[in-house]
Amino acid sequence: MPFVPHTEDDISAMLQSIGAKSIEDLFDEIPVALQSEGLTQVPEGLSEMAVTRLMQERAEQDGRYLNFIGAGAYEHHIPAAVWQLVSRGEFYSAYTPYQAEASQGTLQVIYEYQSMITALTGMEVSNASLYDGATALGEAILMAVRAHKKARRVLVPRTVHPIYRKVAQVMVQNQNIELVEVDYDRASGIVDAASLPAGEYAALVIPQPNFFGRLEEVDALTDWAHANGALAIGIVNPLSLALLKPPGEWGAQGADIGADIAVGEGQPLGCPLSSGGPYYGFMTAKMALVRQMPGRIVGKTVDLEGKPGFALTLQAREQHIRRSKATSNICTNQGLLVTASVMHMSLLGPQGLQNVAASCHANTGELLKAVASVGAKPVFAGPVFHEAVIQLAKPAAEVLAALRQQKIVGGYDLARDYPELGNALLVCATETRTAEDIALYAKTLAAAM
Amino acid sequence: MLIADLSRPGRNNASQAPAAVAVNDLPAHLLRKSAPDLPQVSEMDAVRHYTRLSQKNFSIDTHFYPLGSCTMKYNPRAANALAMLPQFLGRHPSADAATGQGVLACLYELQEMLKDVTGMAGVSLTPMAGAHGEFAGVAMIRAYHDARGDAARTEILVPDAAHGTNPATAVMCGYSVREIPTNREGDVDIEALKAAVGPHTAGLMLTNPSTLGVFEKQIQAIQQVVHEAGGLTYYDGANLNAILGRVKPGDMGFDVIHMNLHKTFSTPHGGGGPGAGPVGVSERLLPFMPIPVVGKAGDSYRWLDEKDIPQSIGRMSAHMGNLGVLLRAYVYARLLGRDGMHRVAEFATLNANYLMAELRKAGFEVAYPTRRASHEFIVSLKKLRDETGISAMDVAKRLLDKGFHAPTTYFPLLVPECLLIEPTETESRETLDRFVDALKEILHEARTDAELVKGAPYSTPVRRLDDVKAARELDLTWRMVGR
Predict the structure, then answer these.
(1) Does residue A11 fall inside a structural domain?
(2) In this predicted structure, which of A103-107, A190-194, B258-262, B410-414 has the lowest mean pLDDT?
(3) What ipTM did this prediction achieve?
């Protein structure tokens, strides 16, 4: 029996101890009418060898493509040590660290993660992670509304990932919170602080880089938020922060410096693309907001002999203590992904991450030159990190289909969410793309147009 | 030792990152001024450090882990290996469905299997954890009432034995919460339920078997009371392992459910995630399912989205939830097959009832002695505490010294000094016997040397931690207080 170790002898001895005649007897409190007739859609079990064959065939069916696409998920090289270590059973098969003394490995990993992600974001505190970047944005909005106490409206630019905006809407809509859409400047592809609507808002969401890959004027936007009594919520690519000004330093100098909350998708720091998950969302904030944070937080403390150790802390915010008055219903983090991220950041270090970020930026620059030479020009003027919008001669869907024939995933079609941009395609070249890859892309694109 | 303590300026791993490239085309005011405070260590330093940290954990792979309501069963390694095939890992989530027919086939078949196992009309795999599935479920309840113009339904009913996520979820969906008491047998107090329902009732959230480790015998009557009042019923699938393949939540009359694949379908808990919390719905909630859902036309698969399910509550994640977790669950389901799934509930229940019987013989008091255990049961140590001053927490900590992870303690809140024990089907009789022996030893120690038990654990990397200091003198990063 798969994964059931009982022998016939075990079963009869155990039943005898219980005082039951059969395993069936153990279900005698369940009304007979409810007992199932059996399963019809679950096939017969397979051996490990047969399942391996099946999964390998499915994987081969999907094949390998050259990614020139980002849009919130980025192909990066992950050092081999990362997932070998993550797959150790002691990390992989442990549970939530409720028994702190038996979970010091997991707890210290989270503490180190909190230290590293706040180093990148320039923020003071971090939780142990959330489900993904999109839900992290939703939680940040809920948190800002709790902290603000008065306003229940939040400004969300259209330069934020369109799916993130949809996910946030699902998360806030039943709590009478209004997400107010802010348009972008058509020429530059960023938000103009001067165009932001007057009024009382709990927060302004500031993406950096934005969904188009463009760099927003984060200082002006942060200052606008603070001048208008709103919190500034940064939504950032953590890898970009090896190069870009961290949210903790955005805006005016002095007491008001920095975003109040910074969130984002942790995937670029050690999580494979994996068709979309599992990834993790990170959430960092100013110290003053720590008690408004959702999710787990790990703190350093001492044991009864004075030896340093780690424990879950500030649990009075959480659902298992506060129930209906909790800051969120979340009762997990994405522990294994955070573990991967900690190792990824340790192996790359500040210099390695900066090299990766710079290499992505340079490769995207090369890509833009190459595609411009075949007639696909950037749509927006101004600096980008490692992604940009280009204008095609025909609908992006047709071009993408042609690229697919050459085993290239050619970008993210913007037609559905930004019809005003025409035949616009969002493209990306990370450090994993070589000069040959880029030349092949440009050549194939030229043929497809 | 923190990884930061191993850091030395200028140390790096040159082969794992690309060479330095100058960036001189970005405006200075948008750039970082100083490098982030990240460790500068060699690969070997990092590997040793994290290997050592891993060794400070208890885990299923190293220890019996009988955490009640958490279903800590063995996580088959094949599921991990096959979910991490390079083609699956390398695929971009926004790539066209044409490039992902293999992975979509797995997800579609998983949807179909989960529909069968739960008796629901539709399944959406996208929620990323149990609580996330709860959110999707209650949001669907709300969408259903809203679509009917039934705005008076403002309250969700939750038994007092429920997980904290239930009331927290209801509030996130804009509902107020009313608790329903439990009777002496561990079942819902049905008279109190009848008094609570009315035109304001949006729904009831129920775990069955409950967190008290018993099957709710009056489930049909409960369904009738809630449905006649116009409310919907929500099944919290935390304890689905107890009835997998034997009782289908759909047959119990539930309108919406979530499953915890990291429990019932043996995907790893990963130190607290990632999980997967798919939702299943009855016919009347089909129009509201969260997207994307995998659809099949002829031999090809595609994502169903807003266009296909226009009344959907919407998206729960940026992409398709924790897809790698779903693949692991799929592999597990295929390994088990139909018969294997039946055996899950059978042997989880056999193990729980055996352990309960043995512990009673050893002198422990169980909370519901007249009832069968489901896949878990509760021991109350109130008498031991009154007699010796030893608490459930003390016993839990002493178990760590004996080489066992502790059961769930102080949950559910209804039973004083409780241990909620869930052995799961993957443990052998010998392991259960050793666990009984350990608890017997602790009982003896409590009566003969209480201080020994109160001081536990001794053998773990740290002894009991000062939680008060952790909360009062917050040290949440290595920059906050100093190393």
Answers:
(1) no
(2) B410-414
(3) 0.97
